[in-house]
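Running this now, will post back.
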Amino acid sequence: MGLIYIKPSLPEQSNHRSPTYFFRRAMVRLIVLCLLHLDDDTVSGSNWITENNVHHSLSQTTKTTRKPYCGYKQQTLSKREQAEQESLLAAIQWPKPPDGKIAFAQSTDPARSDFEIVKPSGFFRVGDQLEVLVRMNDFQGKPKQYGGDYLQARIHSPLLKAGATGRIVDCHNGLYKVFFTLLWPGEVKVSVSLVHPSEAIQVLLRLREERPDRVYFKSSFKSGRYSETTECNVCLPGGLPVCNFTDLYTGEPWFCYKPRKLSCASRISHAKGGYQKGLLTQEESLFFQSDVNIKRPILSSGPDSVIVKPKAFAAEGPTVSPSGYYYEDQWRPRTHWIHHFNKSDDITKCLQGKVIHLFGDSTIRQWFEYLTAVVPDLVEFNLGSPKNVGPFMSVDLKHNILLKFRCHGPPIRFSTVFSSELRYIANELNGIVGGRNTVIAITIWSHFSTFPVEVYIRRLRNIRRSIIQLLDRSPKTLIIIRTANVQELGPEVSLFNSDWYSFQLDSVMRKMFSGIAVHFVDAWEMSLAHYLPHNLHPKEVIVKNQIDAFLSYVCPLQT
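Update: finished.
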């Protein structure tokens, strides 16, 4: 460990030094000791700084030339944290194909696969279960003998603008069962799609574990008129000096290569650098073809719809899946009442006197944009923030409403974010007093899809800890989690933001926040069940339904 020396900029003193002099010298020596201790801890992977040690967010900017550091592999966990992490990873473990290389011809072909409705001519009522059997075949027309394909399925009635998702069960032999709860009367159609064949999933798994650098980031450093830009990431290959920007409060790791002439402290901004190319072999690329095996429909071998009669009585069985459904283009949760805020005055009345914090990525920025556009007296205050980046703030002075958006900390694939505005959600939550007029909405998922799941678990663990502390000191604070959503996929997007990556992260998030006093807006089902094409940023009709669900937690109907 090299010695770090900080030269104190103290004025020359006579032999009769004042108490201030000795205090300043003691403080400098304390800082040196802290830096030495922190550098050892963060680089060697021993215990992280905890909330007992630091009460606000700072950055460590010391130079180190140690071997590559990957925080998600070297973090020190308590026994409980380790057990939880192992349980979460086990819960999302995906079936693997047989050992050995699978040729493209033996991979799943959605065009040669089919599904059939079990008992298509049966008598169905609202509330009944509908079972569908899916049979997978390869490009030679032969039945698949193993599972692991990633499917999406929904039922829908186009004329009614109704839709709901299904629950998929992998039988691990090339067969899949899909279970739907019939939730409205009339003709109900079944749609099944292959998102990725099992062979493609294995490629995605390999990329997630071996190539977390396939999205890279950069930071700008500036002093006077001179500036430099270097690459940044959670992990960086060794051999070059790095700046350690690990967050002292949360222990979230982040590193940039050190500029040649400038200090680490001269960093002024963060930005997405780009996407790595040439990630696949020629054979692997065949598993990612838009018109062949990415989000392709699987057709029915017989009838693809059933007639559903109204239910004879109002009783409804246990609610497991789905969480809700569309009817006449309006989302209807199955576990609670929802109010559809079709008039802007209703939204104003609901939010009057509230402070609303929105934390996350561009999908929750859509909520900020929607509310600012729809609520007449809610006016955006110009903070001079970069477009689409933030932070943003809107104010309604007449009704005492404050609406704020801030993006989450790195990794964040935004264009330029000022270093001073690069903050972690957990730290922001620690700075909120909370109370009955405080509303917090969080989403965090999309920008973590290229990293091993341990990186995401660490981030959620920190956020969860801060949420629990916030609710402990201010129990009436309302906290809402917006889940992930599906999106349009092509060959390139699949390698970075596949729905399969999002589905895995979303599954982890739901488990980690279960049993805590938070509410969920199920953006996943709301995007998958809708008739509109999948989009990373859902269209306004879907966002409006998300906002209705959000506001229904803020202003619940009195029933």
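The radius of gyration is 26 Å. More later if anyone needs it.
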